[in-house]
Design a protein that fits this description.
three-stranded antiparallel β-sheet, 22 helices, membrane, transmembrane, GPCR-associated_LMBR1
Length: 678
């Protein structure tokens, strides 16, 4: 008997996962509520699609079984049946009014033929005769009717698209606008997205003209064009991000099991990031110097209409700079106790000039904040890796105590009662290493299976089981092992999502987009991540349906296969043959090429030869940056230890009293303030 509890648990899991991620990356109290809610909904609906798609596959398997059973009954009866029933789970036992075949009572039927399979036929309830053939079809343990799935997919998809193409882009531009009022910020955001919307509209208009000339103007075609345009853009994006993640995620897991190699890579990143950090500080200083000039011109005129706007600009400046500039402002105020406006300077600054200055300040502070967040996180990670490597080497002997000793002091907590120094050593120096290796090996096998299945997709019409994923899914469907079907599909879709979202959550784009943990991600980066997740989810699920031969194109070529409710909402691409025929061959080949390029580091070597610093083993430039990174880490560790000693005054006493006392890397919030001290 089907139950709604598993579906409720899946939805609750999506809610909790979205909440946990948002709590990790976003300051939900101080960030704009519209941005926070929009990003939460985009993540929540995207995770719902990923978790609910296996339910759609089990529903298809069950309905396929019922169709095969009905066809087998019809082939043995003398009564001619004019329709092919398509079942949808609902109640306990019905019979089609125009057919003599009897089916279990928990089914209603829809017409297959030319009519939609959601047009339910008239049914007549009756008791099942004792001589009726037993129905072999088993109701899935978490069955959801296709009517419910259709409504769910329609709501989730179009809500996600509204967030993706309208709400989040506007809120992203809103967060970087230099205007001072909400209305003007919204106007600026709409103007900033005008080119974006114009390009999307132009593509839609070209496709619309093509479809009208080919098939005529039909309202249902407009939906297909809109979905096709969005999904095509998402597929191209997915090819790049998924191709990168399929290689880099297993490589990252395996490399993390190699302490010293991972440490050298992190040293290299520190040396490289230091140059970007200096550049960000210079840009911020240039903008703040301009604020000093504006303040000199109008700051001491309390009657100036521009003074409130200048104060808003000052509120956006970093706290350290505010403290440094307070002396300047006091000096400027004391030298102008009786204020006499400088007519040569004041006219140069109007409201539009302050808006432009405000926008530059927001961008400079945003850029500097991203660099500092990355810097603090990287320093913490390097110190942790150094501690692991040192503790591993110092405890090789059979008589070694194997107690984990950290560089920085660690606060005592109840958790330390169970997570002792010995447990910490075994976990960080031994168990976690083998766990990374095992998970990395499993991820490598999964990635190879995905790439192979992608390559074989163009041949699915005549060799459907070349795909590894299609082989397992078809086997589970034929044997009605719905639990294993859903488990396998959930793991497979989850792995594809992890590979794609791993790239989204770890990449940086010109130091403008970066997701920082410990609630340090700004609204611009949050909105960008929400947009990417929304754009990737539907194409990612369509790609999985291609891997298991349940996509629209394959189901049309094979009339015995039912399509999922998800593909029914997505529509068929037959209206646009160029997309329909080209993507099925072009995109799998592109993904395979990207995977090969990432695996052999072609892009890294090209950038390295062009003069951009990239980590290359046994390279002189790489070695120099590794040494620079080591020196910078030692300097930052010294700052952290001095700051801790200055604030507590008991660091050396603690070490002398207990030499094996554990120590600890501060949280990002603490480290952020400490690492920025001169």
């Amino acid at each position: 008997m089907a139950s709604a509890i598993p579906t409720f648990v899946e939805i609750l899991a999506c809610f909790l996962l979205s909440t946990a991620l948002l709590n990790r990356y976003s300051d939900m109290v101080n960030n704009n509520i519209v941005t926070v809610v929009g990003v939460f909904m985009s993540w929540f609906f995207s995770f719902m699609v990923i978790f609910m798609l296996p339910n759609d596959l089990t529903s298809v398997a069950y309905r396929q079984c019922l169709i095969n059973y009905q066809n087998s009954i019809n082939s043995t009866t003398t009564t001619t049946t004019t329709t092919t029933p398509l079942p949808i789970v609902n109640e306990p036992s019905v019979v089609i009014s125009n057919s003599s075949s009897i089916i279990p009572q928990h089914i209603t039927f829809a017409m297959a033929g030319n009519a939609s399979h959601h047009d339910v036929l008239d049914i007549v309830y009756q008791d099942q005769p004792s001589n009726t053939t037993v129905n072999p079809c088993i109701v899935p343990w978490n069955h959801v009717s296709d009517t419910v799935l259709m409504k769910l997919w329609r709501f989730v998809y179009w809500t996600s698209q509204f967030l993706n193409w309208f709400v989040l882009p506007i809120m992203q531009s809103y967060s970087m606008s230099g205007d001072f009022t909400t209305t003007n910020k919204l106007k600026s955001a709409l103007r900033a997205n005008l080119i974006y919307y114009s390009s999307i509209g132009a593509i839609f208009f070209v496709l619309l003209i093509y479809v009208v000339l080919r098939t005529g103007l039909v309202f249902s075609n407009l939906k297909v064009i809109a979905i096709s345009s969005s999904n095509t853009w998402g597929l191209f994006l997915l090819v790049v991000l998924l191709g990168y993640g399929l290689v880099e995620l297993p490589r990252f897991l395996i490399n993390r099991s190699k302490h010293f190699q991972a440490l050298n890579r992190q040293y290299f990143k520190v040396g490289k990031l230091n140059a970007e950090k200096c550049e960000a500080e210079e840009k911020l200083d240039d903008v703040l110097e301009e604020i000093h000039q504006v303040y000199s011109a109008i700051g001491n005129n309390e009657h100036s209409p521009l003074k409130p706007y200048l104060n808003k600009i000052l509120d956006k400046c970093p706290p350290d700079w505010k403290r440094r500039s307070s002396a300047f402002r006091r000096q400027a105020a004391s030298s102008n106790s009786v204020y006499e406006p400088d007519l040569s300077k004041t006219p140069n600054y109007d409201l539009q000039a302050l808006i432009r200055l405000h926008k530059r300040v927001i961008k400079a502070v945003h850029y500097h904040r991203q660099i500092i967040c990355r810097w603090n996180h990287l320093i913490e990670e390097v110190i942790e890796l150094e501690d692991i490597a040192r503790n591993y080497l110092d405890n090789q002997g059979p008589q070694s105590p194997r107690l984990f000793k950290s560089t920085l002091p660690k606060q005592r907590s109840i958790w330390r009662t169970f997570y002792t120094l010995k447990v910490e050593w075994y976990w960080k120096c031994l168990l976690r290493v083998w766990l990374f290796r095992l998970v990395g090996l499993v991820a490598t096998v999964f990635s190879a299976a995905v790439v192979w299945s992608e390559i074989t997709f163009p041949f699915a019409s005549f060799a459907p089981r070349l795909s590894i994923f299609a082989y397992f899914v078809d086997s589970f469907m034929e044997t009605q092992q719905y639990f294993y079907l859903e488990l396998f599909s959930t793991i497979s879709i989850g792995y594809l999502a992890v590979c794609a979202f791993y790239t989204v959550f770890n990449m940086k784009i010109f130091n403008v987009y970066y997701l920082a943990s410990n609630k340090q991600t700004d609204e611009y980066s949050l909105s960008f991540s929400g947009m990417l997740v929304c754009r990737l989810t539907a194409p990612l699920c369509l790609n999985y349906l291609c891997l298991v031969n349940r996509d629209s194109r394959f189901t049309q070529q094979n009339s015995t296969r039912l399509e999922t409710s998800f593909t029914a909402i997505m529509g068929h691409l037959d209206l646009i043959p160029i997309i329909n025929s080209g993507l099925n061959i072009f995109l799998p080949l592109c993904m395979s090429a990207i995977c090969l390029a990432i695996y052999f580091d072609f892009g890294t070597r090209i950038l390295h030869n062009l003069g951009y610093e990239q980590f290359i083993e046994n390279d002189e430039m790489t070695g120099d940056l590794v040494k620079t990174g080591q020196e910078l880490v030692e300097r930052e560790k010294g700052k952290l230890l001095r700051n801790y000693e200055a604030t507590t005054g008991a660091y050396h006493d603690m070490l002398s009293a207990n030499p094996s006392a554990s120590s600890y890397v501060p949280t990002s919030a603490t480290a952020s303030s400490e690492l920025n001290e001169p």
